[in-house]
């Protein structure tokens, strides 16, 4: 690479670092005079790089928005960070519907890395392992994602075409509050002005998004991430479970996160009244009677509500919590808890 060409690329890298650079600063960094700096800027403009001149005492040059992405100059650390971010994003499902975009971007960066650094990056990628299995997630369309993000920023209502979990298609109007990434999927959450309720939609099920005229006021309440998590916990499922658990919310959240369960306070801190027992329930042993007669001091009883398609995963979770609890409903869960306790007791007695 000739020296003038190298200096032009160095100028581009300096401008891409952000802010306005004075001619004197650029001349010092490049080791040339101001007239040569102006000539290098002209070279960049001829290449369609959007360089803007800033007038005034502290004027100079800055990089402005253009109709296409200019050549991007990355340092070694920056290139590695972007490359690893692309790999992690593809692994966790946080990519757009253009599946090849992340792969081609990673390949371009990998191709231009210096050989010693490329070898070290390859070593990282070859030795990298994930504790979670790779998910098969449907990715959202990049255009829809950008449209919804723009609507959130400028508080613009948006019309979306959505397909629900039952396969039913329909048009919705939304006042979007935020875009949320959770467990490998993208969601948009906001207020449905037609019914006056919060709604959350999966982006990969949105077929079209269009900005509407006007604007809306910010909605008071939880942040978008909390809205999405609470929506998961209150969504309709096959089973509606109500528990009373004696402990702190922090203890309960270690096994039942906000995306799974809602936790609310109960009046008083004493033991709850006994739940109705099925006719064939066994008599409580001494340890259970002792636990039921605990003094009212200590952590309060909290109401925990869970909605789930299956119940078989809940008894092991309650056992792992190791906190006093009462199953209010359904009876099926109470029977599963008793069955698990019996299995544990039989296995513990084996020599």
Short structural description:
This protein has about 350 residues and is of the alpha+beta class. It has helices spanning about 5-15, 25-30, 35-45, 75-90, 100-110, 115-125, 140-155, 225-235, 250-255, 285-290, 315-320, 330-350, and strands at about 50-55, 60-65, 160-165, 170-180, 185-190, 195-200, 205-210, 240-245, 260-265, 300-310, 325-330. A five-stranded antiparallel β-sheet has the order 6-5-4-3-7.
Summarize model confidence as the mean pLDDT. 82
Name the strands of the widest sheet in spatial order.
6-5-4-3-7
Structural class based on helices, strands and sheet pairing: alpha+beta
- What is the approximate shape? elongated
Distance between the ends? 78 Å
Q: Helix segment count?
A: 12
Share of helical residues: 40-55%
> What would you report as the Rg, rounded to the nearest angstrom?
29 Å
Number of strand elements: 11
Could you state the order of secondary-structure elements as H and E?
A: HHHEEHHHHEEEEEHEHEHEHEH
Tell me what portion of residues adopts beta-strand conformation: 15-25%
Largest sheet: 5 strands, antiparallel
Low-confidence stretches: 269-295
Overview of this protein structure:
The chain is an alpha+beta fold. The chain contains twelve helices and eleven strands. It has helices spanning 3-16, 23-30, 34-46, 76-92, 99-112, 115-127, 142-154, 224-234, 249-253, 286-292, 314-321, 331-349; strands at 51-54, 60-63, 158-163, 169-182, 185-192, 197-202, 206-211, 239-246, 261-265, 301-308, 325-329. The strands form three sheets. A five-stranded antiparallel β-sheet has the order 6-5-4-3-7. A four-stranded antiparallel β-sheet has the order 9-10-8-11, with helices on both faces. A two-stranded antiparallel sheet has the order 1-2. Helix 2 crosses helix 3 (34-46). It starts with a helix and ends with a helix.
């Amino acid at each position: 690479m000739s020296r003038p060409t190298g200096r032009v690329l160095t100028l581009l890298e300096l401008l891409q670092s952000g802010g306005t650079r004075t001619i004197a600063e650029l001349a010092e960094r490049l080791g040339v005079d101001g007239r040569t700096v102006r000539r290098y800027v002209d070279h960049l403009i001829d290449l369609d790089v959007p360089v803007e001149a800033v007038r005034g005492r502290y004027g100079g040059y800055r990089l402005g928005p253009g109709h296409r992405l200019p050549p991007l100059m990355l340092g070694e650390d920056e290139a590695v960070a972007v490359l690893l971010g692309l790999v992690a994003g593809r692994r966790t499902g946080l990519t757009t519907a253009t599946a090849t975009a992340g792969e081609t971007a990673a390949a371009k960066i990998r191709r231009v890395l210096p050989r010693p650094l490329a070898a070290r990056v390859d070593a990282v990628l070859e030795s990298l392992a994930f504790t979670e299995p790779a998910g098969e997630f449907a990715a959202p369309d990049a255009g829809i994602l950008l449209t919804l993000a723009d609507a959130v920023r400028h508080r613009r209502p948006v019309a979306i075409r959505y397909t629900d979990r039952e396969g039913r298609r329909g048009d919705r109007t939304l006042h979007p509050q935020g875009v949320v990434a959770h467990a490998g999927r993208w969601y948009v959450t906001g207020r449905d002005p037609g019914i006056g309720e919060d709604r959350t939609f999966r982006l990969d099920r949105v077929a079209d998004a269009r900005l509407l005229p006007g604007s809306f006021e910010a909605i008071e309440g939880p942040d978008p991430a909390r809205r999405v998590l609470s929506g998961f916990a209150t969504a309709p499922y096959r089973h509606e479970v109500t528990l009373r658990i004696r402990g702190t919310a922090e203890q309960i959240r270690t096994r039942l996160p906000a995306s799974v369960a809602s936790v609310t306070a109960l009046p008083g801190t004493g033991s709850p009244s006994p739940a109705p027992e099925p006719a064939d329930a066994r008599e409580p042993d001494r340890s259970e009677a002792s636990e039921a007669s605990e003094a009212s001091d200590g952590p309060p009883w909290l109401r925990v509500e869970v909605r789930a398609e299956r119940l078989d995963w809940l008894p092991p979770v309650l056992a792992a919590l190791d906190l006093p609890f009462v199953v209010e409903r359904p009876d099926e869960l109470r029977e599963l808890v008793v069955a698990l306790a019996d299995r544990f007791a039989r296995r513990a007695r084996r020599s």
